[in-house]
Amino acid sequence: MKKTVVISALAAALACVGVAGPAWADPVDEQLVIDGETMITRAKAPEGHPFDEVLSGWLFRTVETRALETDSFTNPGMLEVEEGEAIWNKVEGSAGKSCASCHGDAAESMKGIGAHYPKWDAEAKRPINIELQINKCREQNMGAEPYDFDKGGQKQLTAYIKRQALGEPVSIDLSQGDLQSWWEKGKDLYYTRTGQLNLSCASCHEANMGKMIRADHLSQGQINGFPTYRLKNAGLVSVHNRFRGCIRDTRASFPKAFSDELMALEVYVTWRGSGLSVETPAVRQ
C-alpha cells in the first residue's frame, strides 16, 4: 500500500510539470461575449508581471464549458447568484436591516465595486475582500452574525455582488495603507514550493501554463471569475476554497480561510489578473 501511494504521488507530480499526457494545448483565439457584452479575456500585463499578456481561464476551457458562460440562462452559477439577490434583500439581525437597507439597488450601488477588491481595511490593518466586507457589514450595521466560511449564503451573496461588476477590468490600488507589503508576502507564497510534491502556484500556472494535467488544461490561474461554478463540484467555489484545494493537492496542510497567508495570496493573484474583465460566475471544469 505504501509503495502504491508513493508511485501515485510521483505520477501526479510528473503530470503537473507536464511530463505525462499531451504536451501542449494553446488557449483559443475567441472572444467571450456574455449577454451581448464583450469581456476582456486578454490584457497587457502590469509592469513587473512574469507574462507579457494576462489570459482569462475561459480561453483554456473546452468548447462546451466555454459555451455555458456566454449566456446567463445557460450558466448554472446564475441560480446561486439569484439566491444571493434574495439574501441581499433579506432583513436579518438586531438592527432590522438588509444589505439593501443601506445600499439600495445593487445594480447601481455595487456596479463595478467587485473588480477592485481586496482593499485596505484601516481599522483591521489588513486587506479585506468581499466576503470579509460582508461580515463586517453584518456585524456592525445589521447586528447579525458573521458568516462562517463558505456557509449561510456567503458564496451566493459574494457572487451576486461580484456579478454587478461584470465586464469591469480588474484593478487594485496597492498604494492603499500597507497593501504593497501584503502583495510582496503573496508573491513569496506564490513561488514557495510546499507539500510532498514540492510544488508552488507558479509550478503549474506559470512554468507550465498551457500544458495538460491529466485531462485538464493548465491556465494562468486567474481569479477574475470567482466565485466560480465548477462542474466537478456542481456548485460555486470561492477563491479561498480554491487556494486551499490547490495547496491540498501538493500534499501539504493548508491555512485557514481569510488567514494572513491566503489574504496576501489573494492580493497578489488578483494583481496578476489586472485588466481582465470580471466574469463572475465563471464556469470551469
Instruction: State the total count of DSSP E strands.
Output: 11
Query: Low-confidence parts, pLDDT < 50 over ≥5 residues?
Result: 1-22
Over the alpha carbons, how many angstroms does the gyration radius reach? 19 Å
CATH architecture assignment name of the largest domain? Orthogonal Bundle
Tally the structural domains: 2
Question: In short, what is this structure?
Answer:
The chain is an alpha+beta fold.
Overall description:
The longest helix has 15 residues, at 2-16. Helix 3 (78-88) packs across helix 7 and helix 8 packs across helix 11. By secondary structure, the protein is an alpha+beta fold. It has eleven helices and eleven strands. Strand 9 and strand 10 form a beta hairpin. The protein folds into two domains: 2-75 and 168-284, Cytochrome Bc1 Complex, Chain D, domain 2, CATH 1.10.760; 78-160, Orthogonal Bundle (Cytochrome Bc1 Complex, Chain D, domain 2), CATH 1.10.760.10. Strands 10-9-11 form a three-stranded mixed β-sheet. Strands 1-2 form a two-stranded antiparallel ribbon. Mean pLDDT is 92; it is low at 1-22. The chain has helices at 2-16, 63-69, 78-88, 99-103, 106-109, 130-142, 154-163, 179-191, 201-205, 239-249, 260-272; strands spanning 33-34, 37-38, 42-44, 53-55, 119-121, 126-128, 212-213, 216-217, 228-230, 235-237, 283-284.
